[in-house]
Automatic annotation (TrEMBL):
Organism: Streptococcus pneumoniae
Name of the protein described by the UniProt record: LPXTG cell wall anchor domain-containing protein
Domain SpaA-like prealbumin fold intervals: 6-96
Transmembrane regions listed in the UniProt entry: 139-158
Swiss-Prot/TrEMBL keywords: Membrane, Transmembrane, Transmembrane helix
Length: 163
């Protein structure tokens, strides 16, 4: 009997507004069958290494054989903070069925993975724009100093001529 292969799809989105993000690069790694602590490339051909998201933000992995997998984000889209948890998610394929999709996150790091409406989302937070501080020490006060000096000089001249 032929073994079933599994498929899984992730969508890369902006964490705040859930808009799809393009140009995020990911790699999928599979657990070594003989050494459970070792994960590596799925095959020698580099399948699913450095996969880039398109306009729709989708990342689809097809024909995955049974085993445990981990998804890593190699680089985030321009203008976004990197996902801090590496790997982002782990999952398992059993008999062609996707199981146990979980985020591997220490408690102090915000997760970069969400599961909503039967969809797997990988989220990135935008880098906030740099704040502009008010300028100080500019020429703005100079006219007021000059007017003040002229007024004091005028009062001084007036009081000398009219005692």
């Amino acid at each position: 009997k032929e073994k079933k292969l599994g498929d899984i799809e992730f969508i890369k989105v902006n964490k705040n507004d859930k808009k799809p993000l393009r140009d995020a690069v990911f790699s999928l790694q599979k657990q070594h069958p003989d050494y459970p602590d070792i994960y590596g490339a799925i095959d020698q051909n580099g399948t699913y290494q450095n996969v880039r998201t398109g306009e729709d933000g989708k990342l689809t992995f097809k024909n995955l054989s049974d085993g445990k997998y981990r998804l890593f984000e190699n680089s985030e889209p321009a203008g976004y903070k990197p996902v801090q948890n590496k790997p982002i998610v782990a999952f398992q394929i059993v008999n062609g069925e996707v199981r146990d999709v979980t985020s591997i996150v220490p408690q102090d790091i915000p997760a970069g993975y969400e599961f909503t409406n039967d969809k797997h989302y990988i989220t990135n937070e935008p880098i906030p724009p740099k704040r502009e501080y008010p300028r100080t020490g500019g020429i703005g006060m100079l006219p007021f100093y000059l007017i003040g000096c002229m007024m004091m000089g005028g009062v001084l001249l007036y009081t000398r001529k009219h005692p």
